[in-house]
Amino acid sequence: MCAIRPYWRRTRPYWRAGWQISALAETARAAIAGRMDRISITTAAGPVSALQAGSGPRLHFAHATGMNAALYRGLLAPLADDFAITASDARGHGLTGLDADPAGLTAWEDFAYDLLRLIDVIDGGSRWILAGHSMGATVSLLAAALRPDRVAGLVLLDPPMLPFEVARAVRAGAVVPNPMADQAARRRGVFASRAEARAAYHGRGVFRSWSDADLDAYLDGGMIDSAAGAELACRPAFEAATFRAVSPNVELALAQLQCPFILLAGEEGSTVRDPELAIFAAHSACLEARRLPGTSHFLPLEQPEAVRTAIRRISSSCREP
């Protein structure tokens, strides 16, 4: 067994970055967020809950670990005039009804196969633009490597990955510590009410830089009413299992990638190290790979217009002869 320094050890946690989002921008974002409809889609693995809106080229957005599709409504709704958008809740997250036994989750590739089944059911004849944040970005990359015929382009927002030298050791059998999984396993999962959950989260931890609108969107899509009060849809045990299932195969997936992609990383507290960022930037299919100034790991909430610009740029590149 190799003892390897945890890859997520940072000089400053992303939730302490302190970037705040304009209240005026959030008011406008909240006003348009209602344009996305909640639907249930039956796949071979079971029912998937998703938000959909718009028409045009197919766009799927995948959320971060422990989050849900509703958090990104404000980011995605302004794109509804240009894209047919689907933002789904992953297995064990949000309102999706797929099996969520933590013991059955072995790797993030499981989420990638869920995603591929979903887009095949919705529109099996089109090539999709896949965008995602954090785990959702890495899952989108894995899906594109598994089924290049289904993916036209990628927008990757601070995708978590093991340092490539660590990933090679993990593939060879090394075991690395995972404090994020340990922390998630200890997370409180049941509250007396949604109001109590909101008070517990507001201005704290990963929610420190979030606007009120973003926190409310997260709770709307991530809490389930129960006899006990209100419970996290992503149970702490499943969130911990998700962190432990981080894929060691990002370098291999990148080598197989055929479609154009953009990678945007946070300036501080990013889950993308400089060495891996440089490798992505050197890839022949890379249109852009850089850090967004003034952002943390939650860059889709902090600079949504930069993300929308990246999505539109990928779409334009896919239409070029």
* Average pLDDT over all residues: 91
Q: Helix segment count?
A: 13
Shape: globular
Total of domains: 1
Tell how many strands the DSSP assignment holds.
11
**Poorly predicted tracts of residues:** 1-33
CATH topology: Rossmann fold
User: What is the CATH first-level class name?
Assistant: Alpha Beta
GO molecular function, one term: catalytic activity
Protein name: AB hydrolase-1 domain-containing protein
Domain AB hydrolase-1: 61-308
What descriptors fit this protein?
321 residues; alpha/beta; Rossmann fold; eight-stranded mixed β-sheet; three-stranded antiparallel β-sheet; 13 helices; 11 strands; globular; disordered N terminus
Give an overview in words.
This protein has 321 residues and is of the alpha/beta class. The protein has a single domain, classed as Alpha/Beta hydrolase fold, catalytic domain (Rossmann fold, 3-Layer(aba) Sandwich), CATH 3.40.50.1820. The chain is built from 13 helices and eleven strands. The chain has helices spanning 23-33, 73-76, 109-122, 135-146, 164-171, 179-185, 194-201, 212-222, 236-244, 250-256, 274-281, 299-302, 304-319, and strands at 37-43, 46-53, 58-62, 84-88, 128-133, 151-157, 190-191, 223-226, 229-232, 261-266, 286-292. It has an eight-stranded mixed sheet, sandwiched between helices. The termini are far apart. GO terms for molecular function: catalytic activity. Residues 61-308 form the AB hydrolase-1 domain. It comes from Sandarakinorhabdus cyanobacteriorum.
Per-chain topology:
Blueprint: H1 23-33, E1 37-43, E2 46-53, E3 58-62, H2 73-76, E4 84-88, H3 109-122, E5 128-133, H4 135-146, E6 151-157, H5 164-171, H6 179-185, E7 190-191, H7 194-201, H8 212-222, E8 223-226, E9 229-232, H9 236-244, H10 250-256, E10 261-266, H11 274-281, E11 286-292, H12 299-302, H13 304-319
Parallel strand pairs: 3-4, 3-5, 5-6, 6-10, 10-11
Antiparallel strand pairs: 1-2, 2-4, 7-9, 8-9
Protein name: AB hydrolase-1 domain-containing protein
Pfam families: Abhydrolase_6
GO molecular function, one term: catalytic activity
